[in-house]
Amino acid sequence: LGFSGFLIASAIMLIVLLFQLGIENRGREIGTLAASGVPSRTIGRLLGWEGFIVTIAGATVGSGLAIGYAWRMITGLKTIWLDAIATPFIDLHLTFKSFLVGWLVSIAVTWMAITWSVRKFVRQPPRRLLAGKLETTFHPAGPNRSPWRWAKLLLLAGALVLGFWGRDLHGEAQAGTFFAAGAAVLVALLLHTRDFLQRLSL
Rounded mean pLDDT of 51-68? Predict the structure, then answer.
């Protein structure tokens, strides 16, 4: 479950980045619509529906591939990786309800990520869109002025506390503290990288 959480978060970030890249390549098209008087909200809605259609197709194909992947993993655990589970009595459990819930959740999460990534681009001035200069506006701050400074320190402190606390735990509780500490360090490093890149723009 912990590893799956990391994979899902990484997939959402990748979706946002890829969709933003696609929008950047269509900056002049969006700029033409904006210069023609089409409201930014309407442009955002058009791009959102476009992403929604792609999301449905991707979720449908991905759900089918996920079933095949899960079946192959379980088959491997029952045969060549039997020592990892010490029992061959596991089977793929799939119901229409679980398939439908997974399909709907993947569509909802992906579409929300796409909608969030579209919002900041459609608000760009038409002149910049037509010029193809879709630059993200940064507000550089010094290392002591970062709004995330205390958040980073709290996350790192929390990771240390969880790391020491997890040494006295066992089983699933210890695994939970491991993933929580790793997630805290990951978020802290991402925030630090963000501040570092902003300082480079000074």
Answer: 90
- pLDDT tens per residue across span 5-55: 778 888 888 888 888 788 778 878 888 888 888 888 888 888 888 888 988
Give 126-147 pLDDT, tens digit per residue: 777 777 666 555 455 555 566 7
**DSSP class per residue in the chain:** -HHHHHHHHHHHHHHHHHHHHHHHHTHHHHHHHHHTT--HHHHHHHHHHHHHHHHHHHHHHHHHHHHHHHHHHHHHHHTTTGGGTS---------HHHHHHHHHHHHHHHHHHHHHHHHHHHTS-HHHHHHT--PPP-----TTT-TTHHHHHHHHHHHHHHHHHHTT--HHHHHHHHHHHHHHHHHHHHHHHHHHHHHHT-
Dist. CA 76–CA 68, nearest whole Å: 12
Tell me, what's the pLDDT at 202?
Answer: 58
Q: Would the pTM count as exceeding 0.85?
A: no
Angle at the Cα of 56 from the Cα atoms of 21 and 68, rounded to 5 degrees: 105
Burial annotation 29-42 (CB, 10 A radius, 16+ → b, else e): ebbebbeeeeebee
Residues 6+ apart with CB under 8 A from 83: none
